[in-house]
């Protein structure tokens, strides 16, 4: 199964009109249409791999072009060639002498890289007939280390240190795997409190979530302070003092403004403030972290952190108290392995970003691997969950008692239903033809 050459790589622009009901709305993204650049890779033997990268509507067509531009580096290679030196292949894909100029390892070209690599990891897991998390958990640590490009991060994490972390985590590994299969990984919900939701809808959704067993909630903030005070008061009153509340500004503020605004909201006892300022401002995050520490409020970020080098510096500068990996922003599992291992070395909990289209499906594999094989801890750890668009996947996320249950199907849970892809292709799919016709009339 590993020997057949990859002969085809097809990418589609698939969008869902979530803006119509304000799903996903926050202080910076008021009308997102959750979308993906969706990749299907296929070998001459008929083995397929499915991958995606997440966007919020306009611009998806640019990512599609970037995937097509990178495809020549993939087609003609065998899966065996790729996975025998996956770290080397990652570097090949991210270091093309001409295309790296429009990165390197950041922005549109890196989103495209993630989509392709996600498809290849999915293909590998399918070839081994294992869910992706299990492929990672069962992999020999030395083989796992070979999947990582350590360039630029050895001042924070060497290959030997990474190997030592994985070897240390072997103790109790089987017990933790059984625990996850039985109980699942703890999740928190963002679905109740998008910024565009009315107070009535927010309150009702919180009540419903409490009934379903949720105890960790995140609310979007940042557009208007008085509005934030009212909404945080509503949600804290509804969920009670014993449950956990997080707040997320989606990069809205300057540094001083962030400190002042969050200090005002401290009465609602948020565990963290997420993306308080520009996601590239490492020293700004460090200043905010230092100022909010006496209030017991941490800083979380990472969903728009470009690559492992930026995560390295965030950790070195003590600028984050919660690392939020994303399965599509950085270079797929290869780069997320490096980030998980750096977080473990710096003893900072990982609480992944999810939601969107497919992000929950993908990142659940990474966080299961992190607990079983890397961190061996659930302290202050949870994975985001958003209850949108799972019905479009062949192996949708399973939530039980507010926990992610480990996927059982082989692969990376990336494969979408053919009908969903066809209906939601932009701009000629049935859904978008109807919407665009109405706008034009």
Low-confidence stretches: none
Largest sheet: 5 strands, parallel
The DSSP helix count reads: 17
**Structural Rg:** 21 Å
Q: Which bin fits the share of residues in helices?
A: 40-55%
What portion of the residues fall into strands of 2 or more residues? 5-15%
Number of strands: 12
The mean pLDDT is: 96
Report how far apart the termini are: 52 Å
Helical/strand content category: alpha/beta
Tell me the series of helices and strands, N- to C-terminal: EEEHHHHHHHHEHEHEHEHEHEHHEEEHH
Q: What is the general shape?
A: globular
Order of adjacent strands in the largest pleated sheet: 5-6-7-8-9
Features:
17 helices; alpha/beta; 12 strands; 441 residues; 4-stranded mixed beta sheet; 5-stranded parallel beta sheet; 14% strand; globular
Please summarize what this structure is.
The protein is 43% helix and 14% strand.
Write up this protein.
- The protein is α/β, with parallel strands linked by helices and 441 residues long.
- It is built from 17 helices and 12 strands.
- Strands 5-6-7-8-9 form a 5-stranded parallel beta sheet, with helices on one face. Strands 10-4-12-11 form a 4-stranded mixed beta sheet, covered by helices on one side. Strands 1-2-3 form a 3-stranded antiparallel beta sheet.
- Helix 13 (308-316) links the parallel strand 8 and strand 9 (322-323).
- Helix 8 packs antiparallel against helix 15 and helix 11 (255-265) packs parallel to helix 12.
- The longest helix is centred in the N-terminal third of the chain and has 21 residues, at 107-127.
- The radius of gyration is 21 Å and the shape is globular.
- The model has no long low-confidence stretch (mean pLDDT 96).
